[in-house]
Amino acid sequence: MQRASAPQHAALQMALADIALQKDWPPRSGKLHGPGVWWQLLVAAYDREKKQERAQFLPAVDGVGFDGGGVDIVRGERRRRNLNSVEIGEILEYVNAWAASNGVQRRRREAA
Question: What is the pLDDT of residue 78?
Fold first, then answer.
C-alpha cells in the first residue's frame, strides 16, 4: 500500500496544531496540550471506533506507574510516519470531524 504523502502529513499536522491552540483538555480546565498529545488522544479514540489496537493496563516496571498506583497504560506504536495513504486519510477525516463538532476553527491552507 502507498505510504502517506507529505501533503497528507502536513494537513494532519495543521489540524492537530489548530486543535492544540484552541481546545483545553479536559474541557473547561484551561490546560492546553501540544499537537503530540492531541495525536495520542484522537488516535486512541479513532482506534476504539474502528475496533483496532487497544490500550492495556500493565504493572509498571518501576513499581510506581503513571499515577503512583503501580500500573502503566501501554499502547502499541502507531507512528505518523508509518501510516499509509488510506490510514492517514481516515484519521484526518476523523480528526477534522472531531474538530468541527468541538468548535475548532480550522485555518485555510495557503496555496502552494
Answer: 62
